[in-house]
Specification:
Largest sheet: 8 strands, mixed
Number of strands: 10
Structural class: alpha/beta
Strand content: 15-25%
Length: 314
């Protein structure tokens, strides 16, 4: 199959995107043609958004050693370089087809899918399947899935009439052991091949969300078809207020105005003012994950959150 891969975690990084290189390697080892287009930075929680009002610039990533952060990013594709430039950038001169190169773009997973389907990789033939992921973390229950950039990439593919799978790895610690990741990637490839090879699966859906637990021996564990747990944020805001000096965001005009106010002894509004006076604040994304965990704990067996908690793929 010709498989287009994107994600919302960006290029390989042991800290923020530890699974994508292993997964792509296993797809290639299984004989698939794999075309890769990823956001150039972390884009989690962005859903199916597109960023408008700015030009989208590609860069070109040449993956390095598996499970290490030694890949390199370049401003021009390898095919456009002279022999001397190729030698300098790669250590050896090779044909452009012999050098693996992924596309990175300054946008979202959904945009990656649009550009991957319609503007890159035409010479490789039609895309048979779009896989978004593997996500760094589970995408079970409604509050995770509705915000997920991984789901957003798959949704964009479905909106373009393509078969799509959103793939997420549910970790239970942050050890990122290579053997466990490799086992999850091999199992994911087998599961994707099973889904893609059965026409009956695609008569009922255009998109599948698959969550694989990062546990040893995952291929021997159950695979379940479940409903998505419908839950909500119960604990209030998902943003944390951050105290900052009021002058931190001030430009030269605001700073000058503040000095003049102080000069004449103005202290700001007092008494019963007609209009609200806002307090200057910064905010940091800080979702209440306990809301999700509690919703799973209180739910009846059989939903996606429950399945992953049992160590099952769903």
């Amino acid at each position: 199959m010709h498989i287009l891969v994107t994600n919302d975690d960006g290029p390989p990084s042991q800290k923020s995107s530890p699974y994508v290189h292993s997964f792509i390697t296993e797809l290639q080892s299984a004989g698939h043609t794999v075309s890769v287009i990823l956001p150039d930075t972390q884009r989690s929680w962005i859903g199916k958004a597109h960023i408008v009002g700015q030009a989208i610039r590609p860069t070109y990533f040449r993956p390095g050693t598996l499970y290490q952060d030694d890949g390199t990013t370049h401003s021009r594709p390898y095919s456009t370089l002279s022999k001397s430039q190729r030698s300098q950038s790669n250590g050896a001169v090779g044909t452009s087809s012999a050098v693996e190169e992924w596309i990175l773009i300054s946008s979202t997973p959904a945009t990656c899918v649009q550009l991957g389907l319609h503007h890159f990789f035409e010479s490789r033939g039609p895309v048979d399947l779009v896989v978004s992921g593997p996500n760094y973390g589970r995408n079970t229950t409604a509050v995770f899935a509705l915000s997920s950039g991984t789901l957003g990439g798959a949704l964009e593919a479905a909106a373009c009439g393509r078969r799509a799978i959103a793939l997420s790895y549910a970790f239970f610690d942050r050890a990122n052991r290579p053997e466990t990741i490799r086992g999850a990637s091999r199992f994911s490839v087998a599961l994707i091949e099973k889904l893609a090879g059965e026409e009956a699966y695609w008569e009922r859906a255009q998109l599948y969300s698959v969550n694989v637990p990062l546990v040893d021996g995952v291929a021997e564990r159950k695979v379940l078809w479940t409903e998505m747990l419908q839950n909500q944020w119960k604990s209030g805001s998902c943003f944390q207020e951050v105290e900052v000096p009021e002058e931190e965001d001030d430009g030269a005009v605001e700073q000058e105005e503040q000095l003049r106010r102080q000069e004449v002894g103005e202290e700001g509004g007092e008494g019963n003012e007609k209009h609200v006076r806002h307090i200057h604040k910064h905010f940091r994304w800080a979702p209440q994950f306990k809301d999700v965990h509690e919703s799973v704990e209180k739910s009846a067996p059989g939903n996606d959150g429950w399945a992953i908690r049992q160590g099952y793929t769903r």
